[in-house]
């Protein structure tokens, strides 16, 4: 990728202070973009323009969009990265209405709200790219570990495809990136908690989890920067003909053709 191919582009990365989000923000800034990050709380390591926002709350989504409009006049690229697994495992009997709503608010509705409020300016300028960060769980749910999360990501995939079709002739591209196991703090924490509860080592826990999904043929988790590099390509001029597709970055773990 060219090191300056995003010069002059205004980018918002939600959940952009840690993990995959931070890697994306850093990667796109290095490519010349003016990067804005949002999260509930600011990280001490952040070097990009930061706006605090809880995107599960409609009023804070509106406040975020208003600050972006007043400070930057809009954005050119939106990375909907905020999300996560926040509900317990154990299957349907462990999940309450509140659990389902919590997961949908975080992983689906937050992106829908932000898209809706930022899209009019993109349509007006007849250009823009929206990336939804999903998960391979959206295509391969593990009932005992991530049922509500997987369902919310599957819904995000469907919404993203529909939105891409709607906007294709308006100059706005919409794409989905679905990481598999990625070496982030939440993933390491999840592995440690899972292993502790099972009375096994984190290495054994990783093997058990991977056995449920068929393993990772490449033999390791992804690094956040590898996801960021894929996102960089997809938002760049080199990907101008791409829209509506889901890109798994999973080391070959999804046992499906599509």
TrEMBL record:
<comment type="similarity">
    <text>Belongs to the short-chain dehydrogenases/reductases (SDR) family.</text>
</comment>
<dbReference type="InterPro" id="IPR036291">
    <property type="entry name" value="NAD(P)-bd_dom_sf"/>
</dbReference>
<dbReference type="InterPro" id="IPR020904">
    <property type="entry name" value="Sc_DH/Rdtase_CS"/>
</dbReference>
<keyword id="KW-0560">Oxidoreductase</keyword>
<dbReference type="Pfam" id="PF13561">
    <property type="entry name" value="adh_short_C2"/>
</dbReference>
<protein>
    <submittedName>
        <fullName>SDR family oxidoreductase</fullName>
    </submittedName>
</protein>
<dbReference type="InterPro" id="IPR002347">
    <property type="entry name" value="SDR_fam"/>
</dbReference>
């Amino acid at each position: 990728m060219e090191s300056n191919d995003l010069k002059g582009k205004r980018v918002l990365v939600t959940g952009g202070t840690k993990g995959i989000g931070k890697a994306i923000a850093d990667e796109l800034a290095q490519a010349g973009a003016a990067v804005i990050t949002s999260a509930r709380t600011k990280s001490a390591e952040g070097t990009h323009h930061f706006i605090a926002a809880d995107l599960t709350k409609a009023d804070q989504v509106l406040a975020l969009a208003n600050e972006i409009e007043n400070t930057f006049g809009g954005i050119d690229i939106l990375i909907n990265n905020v999300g996560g697994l926040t509900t317990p495992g154990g299957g349907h009997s462990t999940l309450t209405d509140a659990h389902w709503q919590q997961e949908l608010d975080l992983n689906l509705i937050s992106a829908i709200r932000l898209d809706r409020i930022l899209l009019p300016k993109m349509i007006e300028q007849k250009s823009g790219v929206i990336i939804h960060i999903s998960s391979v769980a959206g295509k391969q749910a593990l009932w005992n570990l991530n049922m509500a999360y997987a369902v919310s990501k599957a819904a995000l995939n469907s919404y993203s495809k529909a939105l891409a079709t709607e906007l294709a002739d308006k100059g706005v591209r919409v794409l989905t990136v679905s990481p598999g196991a990625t070496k982030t703090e939440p993933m390491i924490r999840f592995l440690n908690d899972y292993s502790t509860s099972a009375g096994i080592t984190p290495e054994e826990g990783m093997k058990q989890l991977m056995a449920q999904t068929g393993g990772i043929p490449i033999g390791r988790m992804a690094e956040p920067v590898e996801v960021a590099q894929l996102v960089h390509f997809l938002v760049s001029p080199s990907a101008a003909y791409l829209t509506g597709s889901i890109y798994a970055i999973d080391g070959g773990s999804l046992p499906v053709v599509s």
